[in-house]
Amino acid sequence: MAKAKQTPPKKSVQAWEQAWQQHWEQAGFTPYELNLPENSSVGRERNFLMQRRTPEREKARLQRISAEFERGFRQLSPLGPAVTVFGSARFQPGHPYYQLALEVGRELALAGFTVITGGGPGAMEAANRGAHEAGGRSVGLNIKLPHEQEPNPYVDQTVEFQYFFIRKVMLMKYSCAYIVLPGGLGTLDELFEAATLIQCGKVGPFPLVLLGETFWSGMRDFLFYMVEQGVFAPEEIGFGRIVDSPKEAVEMVTRSLPASILEHLTPLDA
């Protein structure tokens, strides 16, 4: 017997629609270059408002991308075994999730891992801080934003990036495991990037741990709903272990890694 179709609460639908309208009313023109014929009326208007794509500009962009990749490889290749911690930039000291990130950074450092984050505030700062205060190595891969995100003060090394996609490559490439704390769109993007790379055999398999049972339970329920809709096979959704304990998260990482990585760890005295 087919299941009855579930409809979302009317209040949720109205709130989503209102948020969508407000977002696009405020968005304005995109600053991205458009490839429009210069002699068309639309092309001339858009050229007045923003740059057009040209082969020269694309070549210059490619050179900037290549240079940024090379700089990232050069600065990060000396790292030993490292774990990337993802999470929201919005949690302030004293928030339970800030404390959770602080503890996981400390546990990773004690186990001998370098802690890598996006280098910003919130959960990123907390994970770097936990590693730094425990005497471990702490690295931040900072992104240049219009509102100038500054690196947090707990990193031993900062690498700055102009391009989100290059930064994300570095966050994935130089880690042997990923721990994901509660976060927003950026955190979800990083989580599913890691999950997709692992699922497709492009990296690892590396441990992927989601920290915060209550926060991630809604996502777990939605993924099971997606299984019912046929977009996932049941065996494909177990890509990340969900735990509440930072110590358990780090122990799971350590248990899951091969001896060839573990032999390079130098645990710190607690």
UniProtKB/TrEMBL annotation:
Keywords: Cytokinin biosynthesis, Hydrolase. It catalyses: AMP + H2O = D-ribose 5-phosphate + adenine. GO terms for cellular component: cytosol. The keyword Nucleotide-binding does not apply. It comes from the Bacteria. InterPro entries: LOG, LOG_fam, LOG_family_nucleotidases. Its EC number is 3.2.2.n1. SUPFAM superfamilies: MCP/YpsA-like. GO terms for molecular function: AMP nucleosidase activity. Signal peptide: none annotated. GO terms for biological process: cytokinin biosynthetic process. Belongs to the LOG family. PANTHER family: CYTOKININ RIBOSIDE 5'-MONOPHOSPHATE PHOSPHORIBOHYDROLASE, LYSINE DECARBOXYLASE-LIKE PROTEIN. This is Cytokinin riboside 5'-monophosphate phosphoribohydrolase. It comes from Pirellula staleyi (strain ATCC 27377 / DSM 6068 / ICPB 4128) (Pirella staleyi).
